Each structure stands twice: as structure tokens, then as C-alpha cells.
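Figure 2 data, in text form.
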Amino acid sequence: MIGKIKKGKSFAGLTKYILEKEQAELLCTNLAGDTPEDFYRQLAATYQLNYRVKSPVYHISISFPPTEKPNKEQLQEIVGETLVGMGFEKNLYFAASHNDQNHFHLHIAASRINIDGECVSNWYDKQRLEKVLRSVESQFDLTSVPCSWEVERTAPTTGQKRRMKRERQELEEGIRIKAVEKTAIEKIQDAIENAIKPGITMSKFVDKLDSTGIKISLKVSEEGIIQGISYSLDEVCIRGGKLGRNSKSCTLNGLKKQGIDCNLKRDIFVLLENVRCGDHNKIDISLNTLAQKIINHPQNSSFNSAIANIPMSELKPSPQSRKNRQIEID
């Protein structure tokens, strides 16, 4: 099962969306009445118990694989386990199922304000929901889905998934001749995994990616602090922190953990080929000056095993990097 959480302010809009949808079926509730208006009026009334809560609306959606459709009694138990696991034992709620898409799914609408006027914490609620759903999957013998922190690859976006699905359908119907291509994110992740070898230098790693059309961009502050790394391909740019997870993280520190040998003194000018410093004003600054700042800044020590003040004469940029560049400064 895949769970999603949204918080908001309008009980009326959410209630109408869930209950007035075609093929919607009410599963269970602790609210009185029969109409959407009956429900959202009671939910909205809880706001009077705690005016400090800015977003009292809590919406959990749970999707099931196409091959699974629990019966109503099981769904009611799943809703109950989810509410208890998320701390909503004393809160007003209702739940309904939808069968209007390719996959069966259910919705839970609840007030974050319980009958005592206390607000259910949203601290790490997405991670807590994942743990609750893993427990429910085991309890009801449903298909298990790994938690996000157990997945090493970044999944394609919803838009990318829709495009790939549409292209696959066109291919099956003979409308499309060319096979479905991987998304830019998948291509970047494939290239990174293929390029990483134990002990490979950062310079060689960058060169390998460059040969596949992938450019690495380093973001640096005006003081020379490395703020992040990003990858771009086919006009798609993604930050290293958003690419890969856990042991496959594609940040600079993540690359080091995967075995890449990063030495700023040796690799700095390769990393600065596509440098950008912030997102605002532009000034002219030499790569030598910027490289000196980066190498000597103590906050960059985690990217390099040996940071020391290096004489400018020892810095040797590649010929194509000798010219000053226009660099954006925070």
C-alpha cells in the first residue's frame, strides 16, 4: 500500500470531494448524519476547541495494487489500525473508498483536533504512516511496499509516470513506433551507478558522466562554502539531495561513501566547470580565487580528507578553465 498525507483548512471541500465522487462508498465514521454537509459541519466545529491550529484538516489516502481489493470489513479494520497508529483515537473522522481509477484506494478525512481540544502532532507523520502501513500489510497479508528510507533510487514523478504509461499504451496500439524512453532522472541514476567504481577519483567520475551528456554543477557561497551538487541532462536539472537515497545518495558526501575519492586540491577545477554561486547578483570572479576559497574553507573539510592552505601557485586549472567566468553570487 502507498499512503499520502495532506493537511488543509477546508473540511467542506475535502468532504465533498471524497463523498460525492462517482463510485464512492462510505466505509466507516464516528460522525452523525448522512450527508456531506452533516459531516463537514461536525468536523469544522472542532476548530472551536483549539483556535491555534492553523490546518485542522487531515487527509490520508491509501492506494492498493491493481491485484488487491480488500473487502469492506477488512477496509474498516485497515482504517481503524491507521487511525490508532497515527494518534487519532479520539478524533472525528470518516472514511470512504474510491474505485474510479486503475487502482483501488481509500480516503480518510479527520480533524487534527480531538474531543479534548488537543492537536494531533504532525511530526514525522509521513514516516509514521509508512510504518503503520507496513504493519497493516503484514497483518492482512497484503503486498508489502518498502519504506522510502529503504529505497535507494528516486522514483519518477507522477507526470513522468503518466507519460511513460501513455507511451507504452501507444506502443501497444501501434500508434507509437519508438520504444518508451527512460526518464531523465532514471538516465542520470543509471549513469551515476555505472560510473562509480571503488577508488575512482572525482575528476574521472565527472569525466565519465560528461561522456554520457550529463553535466555536474557545483553550488558555492560567496565565501567559498560548498552548498550542493546537481546533475543535468536533456534540460532537466536535479539536486544531488533529491537523486538517490540512503547508501545511493548522490550528494558529495554520498558519493564519497560510495567509494569516490574526492580531493579538492586535485579535483577542484573539474568540479568548477559548471559552478554557480547562489541565485542572485552576478559579478566577475576568477576561478583561481574561487578555488582558493573553496579549498581553504574549514566547512568544506567533509568533502576532502586533507584541507590545508594551499599557495595559489600550486593550483593548476585546466586550460579551458583559465579564463574568468561570470559567476552568480548570493
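Caption note: Confidence is low (pLDDT under 50) at residues 279-283, 305-315, 318-330.
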